[in-house]
Amino acid sequence: MSSIKACMTLFCLCFFLSGLMQLAHGQSMAPVAAPPMSNDGTTVDQGVAYALMLIALIVTYLIH
Question: Which phi and psi (to 5°) does residue 41 adopt?
């Protein structure tokens, strides 16, 4: 019974704190004009890095 009470207390605490986190973004910044789109390759490099990390995680999981 105390396990259920502890889980419910933790759930309520997390729910309350998630509501408080939304208040941190109460005032938004003024919109800024977007810079012109340019492809300098960093987005592609980051995508390749994420793909390689995902493959490494899958291989590690399968070997372990």
Answer: 90, -10
